[in-house]
Amino acid sequence: MKNRNMGLLIFLIPIGVAVNFVGGQIAVLLKLPLFLDTIGTFTIGAIAGPFAGILVGLLTCLSISITNPQSLFYVINFMLMGLLAGYLAKKGFFTTVPKTIGAGAIMGLIVGISGSLISYFLFNGFGVSGTGVLGGILMGSGVPVWASAFISNMSVDIIDKVPTALVAYLIIRNIPQKTFVKLPNGNVFLNAYKK
Amino acid sequence: MSYIELKNVSYRYPLAETDALKNINYAFEEGKLYGIIGENGGGKTTFCDLIKGLIPSFYGGDLTGEVFIKGKEIREWESSALASTIGYIFQNPFTQISGIKETVFEEIALGLENLGVEREEIIDRVTSVVRQLKIEHLIKNNPNKLSGGQRQRVAFASIIAMETDILVIDEPTSQLDPKGTSDIFEIIHLLKEQGKTILLVEHKIDLIAEYADEVLVIKQGELITNGKTSDVFSNVNLLNEGVNIPQIALLSNDMKEQGKPFDTFAITRSQAREQILKKGSEKICH
Amino acid sequence: MMDETFINSYRSPQLSKNWLLNLNPLNKINIYIALGLITLFFQHWQVNVVITLVFILLAVAAGRFKSFISPFLKLGLVIGPFFFIVRAIFWPGENMIFNYGIINITQEGIDLGIQYATIMLVVCGILVLCTVTIKAEDLTYSLEKIGVPHNISFMILSSLQLIIDLKDKTNVIMDSQRSRGIETEGNVFVRIKAFVPVLSPLFLGAISGAEEKTIAMDARAFSSANPNTHLRFLRPTPALEKILVILVDILILGLIILGVVL
Ligand SMILES: Nc1ncnc2c1ncn2[C@@H]1O[C@H](COP(=O)(O)OP(=O)(O)OP(=O)(O)O)[C@@H](O)[C@H]1O
Ligand SMILES: [Mg+2]
């Protein structure tokens, strides 16, 4: 008989999407100075692998665009995060706090670079949210456009993605073993927690 | 040939240190309602998952022995063929609703759509299930906005629409109030009358006494007792095995110990009433 | 009482009285995006405004003006001015109009700002128009008709429902945390500490629910290899509609070529 765990992935992906929304919403309700709106992508990507992560990112981007049309142009970024979470988790990055911080920083860096490129080529270097104002202030102070785009996007991404990765880590630590055995990246976590 | 047969079945979950099912042998017959009881963590749900074909395909782990459904080994069944042979309903009303349909009518139709049934037949089958379960008033509602009891009835309807011969039902009422519970048992009664083969896990022991033809008692993964419902419950020692026994069965037992046994060992209220009325009238005649 | 009219409604395609709403969802998207693409080739803000007006007219034609205009204005009035202002006051240009500290208003900045602000109006128009003229289940139906697997439909529809469900649960948990005296106000660190206890039960609960849902949907033949059928269905696209869409596409292509040549 066919393996049914493919089914489980199909049901986890929408959860990742919804958690991205809810995380962002709670961050707003608690007036946190962070977005925390990619926790679902990080977590599901980490436990269910790059492919699931990419889908979470894609679907999140599409549904968030309804209320936040600018996001649509950053769809690559949304998917990149899922891909990276899945890949880094496979390499054991989400198994300890220091490694998780490392994963967050790497992801913030890469996503920051790709975000700046998008902002640079599509939006004259201005990010589409607070980063746009930050970039603008830099430009206004005489910093070249490309540098403003990079500095504003990267700093914001790294500041946001490290805590996001940590929250994902806390969630993953509390996922029961019986769930891990059914997940693509599950073995990584089972082996890590055994020790 | 038995309908469902287990031969020397043992099963261990991945990473577990002991077997969740230990060397189980049993043959189920067509058209009967089997009550499965036993203490918490005994392995009842595992047993149901096994028959539903989820072990080992979904859970992984080590399965030894053989499970035959209608003569075919469980590992050889296609999952969609199994879905149209065995229906499965469990306790949580919230996870059994798909969450992708806008009306209860469409929700009940989902399984038939997946099987590729033609539209007219879907409409007929859904309509007839809706009638049987008396949920006409719900068909236009959004399934995601129903109460727990309503959702559980829709879950039953969705499975019944698939017209499976076998139904595995695991604690269907543990999250429902008394009204919800009696609605569900009305449905189970109906299914039994239609000649379905039913495996029912239920902690409300009086309901098992009333509905089950046979009872299986599972403790720590072993099938420790089985037999006709009245025979199983006439053995009061079961109390020591962490199994509840219907109050009426205890009463019958008390009568026996008092030297005034009922003619037949009563386990439900109506049986007891019959016996008591009979005894009463005998006295009057004397 | 069984509602026979309701049941009969599944026997015929889902249709409304409005011709625009009755277009195949993919054709709608095709038309909206084709219109939107014009902006990229003309680079005149006036063109962008005209296209925005066309979207508003389409909303009127669909009988959805009311549901369109409020989200459109809410989005447009935030995003448009935002795109304008950051460019107008920060973009480094030659023709200085006003300069004070980091504020640096130039003619180039203003032109760029107007250009981008109006493009974003068009983007908002497309998205809002999609949400008010296309039902998610109709979209997934037509995607399946062109060969997208129904797993993808499930993921899309399920995501939309779960967003609603989890948001509701969030509010419940936030309230109960507050009433249990867990601080959700106070300084940043207090608030950060409140984040995980709110999110984590939601998330973990949903994950364990996903396992049960897998089992429940398995019992509903979810993994069946048979091609699935559809109870609820849309009409096959009429020839006239196909011609209309092709004409619109050709017309727009023509306009775009014109724009490039000009
Ligand atoms: N997915 C799983 N992975 C590992 N062990 C499991 C899993 N599910 C159940 N078990 C273990 O298997 C044993 C049998 O559990 P099972 O759920 O079948 O019992 P049950 O009789 O249904 O209990 P209850 O009355 O509480 O529903 C228990 O020891 C349980 O901890
Ligand atoms: Mg159980």
TrEMBL record, chain A:
Q: Which residues cross the membrane?
A: 6-30, 42-66, 72-89, 101-123, 129-151
The UniProt keyword set, sorted, is: Membrane, Transmembrane, Transmembrane helix
Matching Gene3D superfamilies, A to Z? 1.10.1760.20
Q: Does the keyword Membrane apply?
A: yes
* Name of the featured protein: Membrane protein
Automatic annotation (TrEMBL), chain B:
Asked whether the UniProt record includes Nucleotide-binding among its keywords, one would answer yes
UniProt xrefs under InterPro entries: AAA+_ATPase (IPR003593), ABC_transporter-like_ATP-bd (IPR003439), ABC_transporter-like_CS (IPR017871), ABC_transpr_CbiO/EcfA_su (IPR015856), ECF_ABC_transporter_ATP-bd (IPR050095), P-loop_NTPase (IPR027417)
Q: Where is the ABC transporter domain?
A: 4-245
| Intracellular or extracellular location(s) | Cell membrane
Nucleus in keyword set: no
Enumerate the GO terms in the molecular function aspect: ATP binding
Alphabetical UniProt keywords: ATP-binding, Cell membrane, Membrane, Nucleotide-binding, Translocase, Transport
| Domain of life from the UniProt record | Bacteria
Bilayer topology annotation: Peripheral membrane protein
Give start-end of the signal peptide.
none
Which family does the similarity line name? Belongs to the ABC transporter superfamily.
The protein's name? ABC transporter ATP-binding protein
